[in-house]
Structures are given as C-alpha cells and as structure tokens.
Amino acid sequence: MLRVERLRKRYDSGGRRDDAGHLAVDGVSFQVPDGKMYTLLGPSGCGKTTTLRCVAGLETPSDGTISLGGSVLYDAADDINVAPNRRQLGMVFQSYAIWPHMTVAQNVSYPLRIGGRAQRVPKAQVRERVEAALAAVHLEGYEDRRATALSGGQQQRLALARALIARPRMLLLDEPLSNLDAKLRESMRLELKRLQRESGITSLYVTHDQVEALAMSNVVAVMKDGQIVQEGSPVEIYKSPVNAFVADFIGSANLLDGTVRSTQAGDCCVVEVGGGLLYAQPSPASPELRSGQEVLIAMRPECITIEGRDDAQPPAADTPGWLEGIVRNRAFLGESVEHEVEIAGSVVRTRGMDIQPRGIGEHVWLRVRGEDSRIVPTG
Ligand SMILES: Nc1ncnc2c1ncn2[C@@H]1O[C@H](COP(=O)(O)OP(=O)(O)OP(=O)(O)O)[C@@H](O)[C@H]1O
Ligand SMILES: [Mg+2]
C-alpha cells in the first residue's frame, strides 16, 4: 500500500523576495491499495506530475509523509528522504526515454545491469528475464532490433518492459500514452490495463485524459489547483460528481441554471430549468435544499432522449422530465448523433445511438429521467 499524507510542494521563486513561490501540491492525501491502479486526473498545471515526482523521490516535498508497504520514503517531520534509486519504483513517462544507441534487449536489461555488484543479476538470468519482460508486452522476437527502429506504440511497450524488469515495488506512469495517435492510444490503454492486472503491480497513473482515467483505474482522484477535489471509482466520479468542476471535466455535462420548486421525501427534487420542470437528484455533497433556491443541474448528453413533436405525446405543461426546444445544430459521429437543442435561455447537448438526425429548426421534446440529472454545487 502506498500512503501519501498531507503532501505539499512549493516551488522556489528563485530567490525573489516579493514572491513566495508556487504551491503546486497543496495538502494531498491518498492511498493506493496493493495491486490496484490509482489515477490522478486533472487539467494541465493542477499538480499531478509534481505529486508523482514526489513519490518517485525526484522532487523533495515541502511537507507531508510518503510510505510504501510500511516503510517510510519521505517524512518531513523526521527528516527522512530515501534516494530515488533506493525506492525500487518502476517509471514510465510521456517521453519514453529509451536509449537510441541500444538494441531492444539492451534497453530492457539496462536496469539489471546498472546496479552495484551486489545487486547485479547473473547473465543467464538476465536473458531469461528480458525474454519474459518482452513477452509480457508482446515484443518477443525484437531483441536485436535497434530501439529507434520501433514504432511509437512498440517503443512505449519497450519502456514498460524496462520499467517492469527490475520487479519494482510499484509502477509510476506519467501520461505514458499521450504521444501516441488516437487509435494506438486506445489499444495501448487496454494493453496497459491487462499488464497491470496480470502482473498485479500497484500503480499510480497520471493523466489529463478522462477517458483513459475512467477506462483503466480502480480509483480516480480528480485534482484541481494542487488539491484532490473528488476521489472514487470511475462510475462514482462519472455518475455523482461532487461539484460543477468535476461534472464538467469528466465527460461533457450540460450545466444548466435552475430553481428548486419542491423538495420531496426521498431524494428527488423538482427543479425549474429552461422553461420546464425536471426531477433532479441532489449530489451527496449538496447541502439541504429549499424551495426557491438557485441551483446548477448537470445532465450527461447521452442520458437525454430527443423526441420529435409528432412521435411523442406532448406532456401536460407541468409534467416534470420534459423540456421543449428547437434543434440548432447536429453532427453525425458514426456511432452516435449529437444535437444542440435550444431551450428557453440555454443550449442542451444530446448524444444518442441509432437515431435519425433531426432537422435544424425542428421543434422537439427532450426527455430527462430524474436519476440522470444531478444538482451540483458550483465551484
Ligand atoms: N520546476 C518547477 N519550478 C517551478 N514551478 C513548477 C515546476 N514544475 C512545475 N511547476 C508548476 O507547478 C504547477 C504544477 O505542475 P505539474 O507539472 O505538477 O502539473 P501537471 O498537473 O502535471 O500538468 P500537465 O497536465 O500540464 O502535465 C504548475 O503551475 C507548474 O507551472
Ligand atoms: Mg504533468
């Protein structure tokens, strides 16, 4: 188990007296259970890489503690700071940092050859472990190829094999797929997940790509301005964002202003939005709601059904769950169709599979189920 507690990192201002430096990580705490993949997700500059580099020992934190499997790697109070090469961690970065002048086998075996005499692995064993590591990433047979004569995806897999060969206690990955094209990224995502699952290696993953985070992680922590704003399973993060920032960052939520019209027993409220009424669920983080309160409603485009005026029975004016609108834009995306529908005062985006695009200017009904619209705190 990796335990990070109250981690802070302030970068120096370079000696300028009027500048207290930049607080890149501001009191981050999390735990990564053995064998799990934990992902730090957030926009550029939110402190993901800095957090990872503190765990790796490549950055000295300003405060906090970091421990792995019960042994302390960093403790500000006790002045403990284990050197990076003694932390026994495997690392993969966005730039794979493979050695261009070496073959594939030389690259992979590098970590086994650099240790001191005591740590060095016998030659026969090195060959065996190189073969096993390359097989794990489906690169068997490439041993003697120059590392630069591999494709981007193959180079990334080589970097992974090299990170795993020394049997690290944990794997740290910083945007490892971001240099690959979209198609390759998708297949490497599954490949990486398979490898992590099969090797059972505890992993800390850093990305700004929410699809990657949702697809690969056991637990996702969404970061903003050096802090973790929500932690949970991919489904929890997606379905129950604690605030508008998370709702907007994960997927592409419609965020609409509304006014609470009635609160009911149970957890559904009726909220007036864009000229209609909707049932909506308060997020666990919202405080008690009262009638008349202004709120923000988050709805996923794929949870909204669009119906033509003619196909649907027009609901009575005060039936919650229906919004009336006019199609303003549409896009056929192959596997789905997106529409932008103007409702009173705002635009709602919908995404559906297997439907005919509606005409621009067509009057439609939007149907939103109560469990699919969430009341989220702003911020
Ligand atoms: N060596 C440094 N000196 C000073 N400030 C730094 C340094 N490295 C990072 N920062 C600042 O710390 C903040 C966090 O940077 P970090 O690299 O951790 O962000 P990130 O979440 O990894 O972003 P990205 O998605 O762009 O990689 C940023 O504002 C950045 O400008
Ligand atoms: Mg980064």
Task: Describe this structure in a few short sentences.
The protein has 379 residues and is an alpha+beta fold. It is built from eight helices and 21 strands. The protein is globular.
Q: In the CATH hierarchy, what is the class of the largest domain?
A: Alpha Beta
* Percent strand: 35-45%
Outline: globular
Number of strands: 21
Structural category is alpha+beta
Largest sheet descriptor: 6 strands, mixed
What CATH calls the topology of the largest domain is Rossmann fold
Number of domains: 2
Whole-number average pLDDT?
A: 88
CATH superfamily of the largest domain: P-loop containing nucleotide triphosphate hydrolases
What gyration radius follows from the Cα positions, in whole Å?
A: 25 Å
Q: What small molecules does the structure contain?
A: adenosine-5'-triphosphate, magnesium ion
Sketch the topology as an H/E string, one letter per element: EEEHEEEEHHHEHEHEEHHEEEEEEEEEE
User: Which residues sit in consecutive blocks of at least 5 with pLDDT less than 50?
Assistant: none
Structure annotation, total helices? 8
Query: Distance between the terminal alpha carbons, to the nearest Å?
Result: 32 Å
CATH architecture of the largest domain: 3-Layer(aba) Sandwich
The strand order across the widest sheet is 7-8-9-3-10-11
Estimate percent helicity.
10-25%
